[in-house]
């Protein structure tokens, strides 16, 4: 298969270095609290931590018992408690309560909180307000980046999107900046930085300031370029159903931190199995980027090959048999196990996804992307809601409709919203409010209302409200220009042509040939042009905020590009970028805030 | 006390004295030769830059800054362009004027502050000469360009460039020029040969100094007094003409008898002096000229520069720092040999008193007889202020104190404040501080400015001591110094210990300002320029939260989008009620509505839930969001309905969505109630049909389903009927509905029940290629051989068309 060999592909940097750095620091921090201690870990840090330092290592450093932070009273007999948490107010509050409860009970313990990736003042304020500031010690574990795979790095910050884009809380920006800085200090400086989006700009600024402070290192750089992209530049892509194998696995079973838990129906046994999904898994690495219609055929071929390999042992003499058992059998067994898992997974995938429903869902999505038969689509969505097919899918379709159509007509918006609330309860009023704020699901403003709003805004104008005003304008300007963009960048290939999914022509294959992910297309264009020139119209439609900075004039042969999605990215985008990398004979490394399937975590 | 007068020199009626201020602490190799030197008035710092060596551009000269006593304050290599002139601003900033008209501003300790340009014209024609001057409006820069035009900025903090009119007949660089401040305007006085011109904004006016000696063919040097009131001109014939700067009056003219061009000339006149006097410096010679024909000559060992002061001239050489001034009146009266002035007698009286001699009484009596004792005390106090040596100061003050004992009703203020002032002056004159201020200068400069200067030099403890000692009000004194100190410390800490961004320092500084002034500053001014770190915004917000009253605090937040969003987030977890208040303040009814809806979900009790929802409804109405209001009202109705049913039928219903409620009702057979909901809540027909369909199929009540299908024309078509039967594995029932399905869906329906032939039939009839394709894919080649053939044929004909 084409995936197995990268033509003259540049070697990827060794990301295990990052893990080692993180591990060493963690151990150092744990040693700061000598003696036996119980460790409480934030739920979403469990899997990343497992990647960095497993239980054995923790035990070696006198961690007695491990607990998950559950925000409930604890049962622990240890006199030393260590908390490894994200800087969240809620968690800190819980710890304060715990300390106070111990105080009341007259129990003396030592407490240490390790915030990762950094501590926030607000958390310390909470400690102070709860009167336990003096009772606990705090520390920072600067664990910014987790390498998920040979070519994927992640910040593992699921709240990045919500905090930054919905709540307007920019505290993670510096975290992202620091992450870039870390990469740069470990792997050498980048020659060029591109980016688009407000957040990207801010991240770059914060990174640049770090650069200015720190000393310059002159080591052979391993990355050539870096591309920062805000998630809100392209909302369309994550709203589409994924059809590449890895994406589907994510849609169906949720890939968390590079691991997926396959249920009993897949494993054909009575318990679920956790599987690491990365390029170490030979089977997976070959099918992860494939359109799911190809996967099954590939797997059966693979099964046959495996059988032949097994069959080799017939007619072997003792010597050969010995060699076979010691060299190959283990590998084959391993492969066998993985193969059966993937076959199981793709079976359950086929079961679910070849059904009528899914086909129609895809069809509707494609019509929306192309802008055909919108009425039919609305009817379909209505039915979808009425039948309570899937809470998330319905919302996804609604958002896709809103974005591609520049907002819903008032009549449709109200009726669909009413239907949705009838189906799923009025708590989703809040969901709708949030989606509206994000610009994901909006009601078209009649011309009249807009003027009223503008005059209102006009009244507010004085120098103090400039900030507000710009925000207001940008939210007005946020009106997606998807249709125009799609035309300009040729995102939707001409319909009617046959698209052979076995031999992908362009990145559109990740959506069955119906749509090229906007984010990836942008990256391709910018890298091709080496800047934003010629894309002025596009950036204007995307609300500007683009930049390109040459950091270093040296041109070198390195072709590795780091793409950073601020606010998460989908597996489809990763597949598309892998495809692009293959075409362009370059290699893309993606760094993401968090893997998101659909970011409607409201 | 003869030694006091040892360094006095008479000139006309007055005496001049030269006092050594410091022996310079610096160690200069070539003294001041070939150096650009700038020394700030009022005992300010000295900047030194070795002249540019044009032969080797790579050699970078060192720019050095010293205190007046020659202690190094800063030193750094000069990396920018060729410097034409150095100068100091009134706030102790160093200005470096470059050849291209760019002016770089550094602080006293060598930190780069900013730069500005003197305009395109200057950068094109280059700087020929430049002068930095002080006016009531601040510090100004005047430039003579290569094109022989003057460009002038009166205040560098508010730059308005003015290009002055052309000087007629100017062929080369003028022989000399100076900046005047007159009538609230800065003017340039230019000498071209023997012609003098005054340039102001609009015109170039030729002027003639009254009574200038006719031998002169050219004016080679000129200088303006510290107050801009007087002007001195030096002609090529060696005459010094002194007069008022408006050129209306001549004060004197003296022949120096030296025709060589001088190196520097400066006014040396103390305020209220009777005699105009100027100092002219040549190589190795210094001349003081006054009204009379005589002059005082001093020999100079070393290259020196003159620094004009309010009450004299400072002379800085490579090794020494001296002050040349007219002996102040009080000193002259007291110390003049054989003086019988009351002050002198009092001093003598005190001396005798110390010696326990009865002569003390004689002297005292003499003063008292003329009833001049209070005058004598005043003289002594005043003279003490003008003396540089603490010992002399003490002697004079003791004498004054002694005299005071014999006076009733003598106001003590003068004496007390003089003692204090002197203590401060002696402290700042100290070698380590190096600000040689005279008492006159100190009074002119004011204590605030002195404190600022100490702060600029980072002499915080001294500044605080001075404030405390002089009892300056807290807000002007100690607090201000502490504030600067804290800002400085924070900056240093931030720089050194945390990887924080520079812009954050601004926030910290702001924070500190808030701390000390308790005034809400507009943070947003900064936000466009720097990205505030959230941590710092938090710091400020949290601090202000406790410091300001709530109203002010919210008002402040309104203008800070970043701070506001952070605070909201904090409130979400910590203080729900504050969040409500925040929305209230903004009249954000929409958000308030959402807030109540959210709150309602946290309540267990139904009454509380409904109460919250009612509040939400009110808010939504206020926000003119009828839709949300109506929906919420519906929800309240639904909740009441659910509870009623729960009580009657014992079915768990409260909290379900409308859809789920109906599903539950239908599944337990409460059709009537479901029907009621359908009507009450305007549930669309389609949804209701789906619901019924699902519920009936779920119960496998096929009979009822059939009845239902016939009750009305189905708004959702009949394909769902087919599908739902198939889903429950009842092909038999499914077939019943196939015939009812619309033509478009026929194929699907047939396929659903597994009737391939029927599907083929329908597809062929519809002549739809893709449908035929779908059917084909479902046929197996072996069993449906004939069918496949038929379909293929049909497909071919369709395709042909």
TrEMBL record, chain A:
InterPro entries assigned: Sec-1-like_dom1, Sec-1-like_dom3a, Sec1-like, Sec1-like_dom2, Sec1-like_sf, VPS33_dom3b
Pfam families assigned: Sec1
UniProt keyword terms in alphabetical order:
Endosome, Lysosome, Membrane, Protein transport, Transport
- Reading the lineage from the top rank, the first entry is Eukaryota
Q: Where is this protein chiefly located?
A: membrane
Q: Does the keyword Transferase apply?
A: no
Question: Single GO cellular component annotation?
Answer: late endosome membrane
Q: Topology with regard to the membrane?
A: Peripheral membrane protein
Keyword Protein transport assigned: yes
Q: Name one GO biological process term.
A: vesicle-mediated transport
- Subcellular locations according to the entry: Late endosome membrane; Lysosome membrane
State the similarity comment: Belongs to the STXBP/unc-18/SEC1 family.
Name of the protein this chain belongs to: Vacuolar protein sorting-associated protein 33B
The encoding gene is LOC107695359
From TrEMBL, chain B:
Q: Where is the signal peptide?
A: none
In this chain the Vps16 N-terminal domain maps to 5-416
Output the Gene Ontology cellular-component terms.
Answer: CORVET complex; HOPS complex; late endosome membrane; lysosomal membrane
Q: In this entry, which stretches build a coiled coil?
A: none
Membrane topology of the entry: Peripheral membrane protein
> Which residues are in the Vps16 C-terminal domain?
535-795
Q: Which GO terms describe its molecular function?
A: actin binding
Tell me, in one coarse class, where this protein mainly resides.
membrane
Q: Which GO terms describe its biological process?
A: endosomal transport; intracellular protein transport; vacuole fusion, non-autophagic
The record's Pfam families line, in alphabetical order, gives: Vps16_C (PF04840), Vps16_N (PF04841)
Q: Which Gene3D superfamilies match?
A: Vps16, C-terminal region
The keyword Cell membrane belongs to this UniProt entry's keyword annotation: no
| InterPro entries registered for this protein in UniProt | VPS16 (IPR016534), Vps16_C (IPR006925), Vps16_C_sf (IPR038132), Vps16_N (IPR006926), WD40_repeat_dom_sf (IPR036322)
Keywords per UniProt: Endosome, Lysosome, Membrane, Protein transport, Transport
Question: Could you tell me where this protein is found in the cell?
Answer: Late endosome membrane; Lysosome membrane
Instruction: Report the family membership.
Output: Belongs to the VPS16 family.
Q: Which PANTHER family match?
A: VACUOLAR PROTEIN SORTING VPS16 (PTHR12811), VACUOLAR PROTEIN SORTING-ASSOCIATED PROTEIN 16 HOMOLOG (PTHR12811:SF0)
Describe the function of this protein.
Plays a role in vesicle-mediated protein trafficking to lysosomal compartments including the endocytic membrane transport and autophagic pathways. Believed to act as a core component of the putative HOPS and CORVET endosomal tethering complexes.
Self-association and partners = Core component of at least two putative endosomal tethering complexes, the homotypic fusion and vacuole protein sorting (HOPS) complex and the class C core vacuole/endosome tethering (CORVET) complex. Their common core is composed of the class C Vps proteins VPS11, VPS16, VPS18 and VPS33A, which in HOPS further associates with VPS39 and VPS41 and in CORVET with VPS8 and TGFBRAP1. Interacts with RAB5C. Interacts with STX17, MON1B. Associates with adapter protein complex 3 (AP-3) and clathrin:AP-3 complexes.
- Which protein are we looking at? Vacuolar protein sorting-associated protein 16 homolog
Gene name, per UniProt, is: vps16
